[in-house]
User: Which sequence fits this backbone?
């Protein structure tokens, strides 16, 4: 056996069920950026679509096209980081709805669409300053959007923003700015079908952040927030496993091959899961790690580097907390050369 990332699709679906139930009647969107947070977009989207998920959120157009192919023609696919005109054409051909946070980009979409009523979701900057139309430019922007909609070049399907989710006070301010923006858009004659503001953490905790649709990334895969509590009913879907490759006086060597992404600063601060429970990691090298021994350890034994804790391993968020980052960073850095195995 070589290292593998075992992805339990059933766990993703049951995590999704928990989230859907929690936010109803708001709708659930599965965010699949970064190859579905490293889990593999094709299989994850196909399984979710078969399970009744209707909305998919892809960062960029290439990921949106893959989500469309996996989800089939009836799903709604939303993509929010799009830049060039050729990309707009690809997105419209694949029936991808585009996030727009920039006036000149709206003109580009209208020009490429030319009468096809391209579905767009207009974005107000509610304080994060990560693209989005500034509040002082919003009235002119929505007036122009209404004009382009009347002409049949675009259809404003959504209005949205993104929030920091680092403090309730900041989020509350963003929410107030979002409500203002909705009013101004409606006064301009726009009737967006979906209003969406929050990602995992705020939407899970705070009902008033759910609006019509919630963009759930991390929690869908069982990745809790750094510093956040365990989530009732939500389990990590991925387990990274690797074999014991040698046993010596200095410890047990575990070969993962391509785990170039596991930060070496985790050495001494993390444990992995073994048949005998957790064992401290002493050293992390480019292709293997050295861990504490246990009686009966043998070459070929399977070790869990991270996962739901079945063998005593930690979650990616617990690893991340040891070095001051977020769980997403640990999991998306697992090399694409490590095969994903679906169960
Ligand atoms: C990544 C992202 C999300 C999902 O965030 P999670 O915290 O992983 O749920 C939602 N919306 C946007 C715009 C994002 O970039």
Assistant:
């Amino acid at each position: 056996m070589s290292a593998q990332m075992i992805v339990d699709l059933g766990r993703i679906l049951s995590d999704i069920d928990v989230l859907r139930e929690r936010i109803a009647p708001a709708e659930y969107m599965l965010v699949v950026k970064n190859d579905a947070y490293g889990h593999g977009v094709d299989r994850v989207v196909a399984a979710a679509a078969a399970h009744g998920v209707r909305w998919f959120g892809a960062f960029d157009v290439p990921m949106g096209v893959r989500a469309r192919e996996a989800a089939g023609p009836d799903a709604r696919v939303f993509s929010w980081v799009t830049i060039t005109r050729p990309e707009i054409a690809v997105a419209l051909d694949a029936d991808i709805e585009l996030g727009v946070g920039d006036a000149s980009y709206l003109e580009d979409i209208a020009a490429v669409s030319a009468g096809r009523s391209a579905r767009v979701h207009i974005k107000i900057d509610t304080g994060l300053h990560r693209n989005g139309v500034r509040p002082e430019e919003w009235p002119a922007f929505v007036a122009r959007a209404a004009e382009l909609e009347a002409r049949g070049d675009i259809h404003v399907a959504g209005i949205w923003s993104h929030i920091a989710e680092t403090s309730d006070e900041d989020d509350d301010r963003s929410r107030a700015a979002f409500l203002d923006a909705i009013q101004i858009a409606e006064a301009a004659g726009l009737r967006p079908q979906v209003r969406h503001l929050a990602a995992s953490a705020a939407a899970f905790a705070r009902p008033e952040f759910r609006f019509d649709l919630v963009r759930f990334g991390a929690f869908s895969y069982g990745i809790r927030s750094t510093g956040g509590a365990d989530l009732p009913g939500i389990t990590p879907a991925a387990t990274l496993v690797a074999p014991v490759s040698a046993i010596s006086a200095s410890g047990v060597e575990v070969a993962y091959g391509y785990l170039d992404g596991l930060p070496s600063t985790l050495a001494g601060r993390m444990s992995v899961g073994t048949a005998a429970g957790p064992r401290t990691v002493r050293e992390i090298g480019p292709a293997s790690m050295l861990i504490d021994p246990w009686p009966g350890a043998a070459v070929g034994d399977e070790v869990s580097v991270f996962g739901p804790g079945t063998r005593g391993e930690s979650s990616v968020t617990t690893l991340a907390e040891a070095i001051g980052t977020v769980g997403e960073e640990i999991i998306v850095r697992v090399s694409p050369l490590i095969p994903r195995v679906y169960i």
Q: What stands out?
A: The radius of gyration is 22 Å. The first helix runs from residue 9 to 23.
